[in-house]
Amino acid sequence: MYILEQSFHLIRTCLEGMMHPFCAHIIITNVLIFNLYAVFVNGKFCKNSNLTVADDFFFQGLNVPRNTDNKVGSFITGVDANLISGLNTLGVSVARVDFAPYGVNPPHLHPHSSEVLMCMEGELYVGFVLSNVLGNRFITKVLKPGDLFVFPLGMIHFQLNIGKTPAVAFASFGSQNPGFITVGNAVFGANPPIDPEVLIKAFQLDKKTVDYLQSQLWYNNHN
């Protein structure tokens, strides 16, 4: 009975949001999964704030360069609620992006958050494409160390290292789980594959080209 009472108390506290700093009001899934021992918010265990410890809010190692020896020449180290449990429902997360010379973070989007990117080393050619309603206008800039650029929520965007040396950027997001959908991977690397006829008509390509693209190994540069 005690466990049941405590569990219902935790649910009520979670739903009250702002009254409970570690189980706040930003809920992506709007689903609570309950059992006698745990409450889940956004698919994560909602821990009683009286039991939190420093490690619930700690991550180490963003100063370490990542291996960019891959097909796209970049690697993203995302630090979200999957790595820091204390981030769940707090509505923030960060990422480190490492680029090899001329490496690219391919066109992608974040379904849950806008992004603020800061160039730390190197020079980055960045940009995003506005929605169909706004004429798919292309917004672009070259960033140098110390420069910031904002990518609005849901807009397809990219970053390209235009220098001969490695580049590094840090990104911040307005969600504990911004999501990451790489356009090429999603369209041509879907599992199971999208019917080629859809892609032939949608992208105005011939079947040979679509077959080739669907046969490629679409690299995931995100941890």
From TrEMBL:
<feature type="binding site">
    <location>
        <position position="157"/>
    </location>
    <ligand>
        <name>Mn(2+)</name>
    </ligand>
</feature>
<feature type="transmembrane region" description="Helical">
    <location>
        <begin position="21"/>
        <end position="40"/>
    </location>
</feature>
<dbReference type="GO" id="GO:0030145">
    <property type="term" value="F:manganese ion binding"/>
</dbReference>
<feature type="binding site">
    <location>
        <position position="105"/>
    </location>
    <ligand>
        <name>oxalate</name>
    </ligand>
</feature>
<feature type="binding site">
    <location>
        <position position="110"/>
    </location>
    <ligand>
        <name>oxalate</name>
    </ligand>
</feature>
<dbReference type="InterPro" id="IPR006045">
    <property type="entry name" value="Cupin_1"/>
</dbReference>
<keyword id="KW-1133">Transmembrane helix</keyword>
<keyword id="KW-0325">Glycoprotein</keyword>
<feature type="binding site">
    <location>
        <position position="115"/>
    </location>
    <ligand>
        <name>Mn(2+)</name>
    </ligand>
</feature>
<keyword id="KW-0964">Secreted</keyword>
<dbReference type="InterPro" id="IPR019780">
    <property type="entry name" value="Germin_Mn-BS"/>
</dbReference>
<dbReference type="Pfam" id="PF00190">
    <property type="entry name" value="Cupin_1"/>
</dbReference>
<keyword id="KW-0812">Transmembrane</keyword>
<comment type="similarity">
    <text>Belongs to the germin family.</text>
</comment>
<feature type="domain" description="Cupin type-1">
    <location>
        <begin position="60"/>
        <end position="211"/>
    </location>
</feature>
<dbReference type="GO" id="GO:0048046">
    <property type="term" value="C:apoplast"/>
</dbReference>
<protein>
    <recommendedName>
        <fullName>Germin-like protein</fullName>
    </recommendedName>
</protein>
<feature type="binding site">
    <location>
        <position position="108"/>
    </location>
    <ligand>
        <name>Mn(2+)</name>
    </ligand>
</feature>
<keyword id="KW-0472">Membrane</keyword>
<dbReference type="InterPro" id="IPR011051">
    <property type="entry name" value="RmlC_Cupin_sf"/>
</dbReference>
<keyword id="KW-0464">Manganese</keyword>
<dbReference type="InterPro" id="IPR014710">
    <property type="entry name" value="RmlC-like_jellyroll"/>
</dbReference>
<keyword id="KW-0732">Signal</keyword>
<comment type="function">
    <text>May play a role in plant defense. Probably has no oxalate oxidase activity even if the active site is conserved.</text>
</comment>
<feature type="binding site">
    <location>
        <position position="110"/>
    </location>
    <ligand>
        <name>Mn(2+)</name>
    </ligand>
</feature>
<dbReference type="InterPro" id="IPR001929">
    <property type="entry name" value="Germin"/>
</dbReference>
<keyword id="KW-0479">Metal-binding</keyword>
<keyword id="KW-0052">Apoplast</keyword>
<feature type="binding site">
    <location>
        <position position="115"/>
    </location>
    <ligand>
        <name>oxalate</name>
    </ligand>
</feature>
<keyword id="KW-1015">Disulfide bond</keyword>
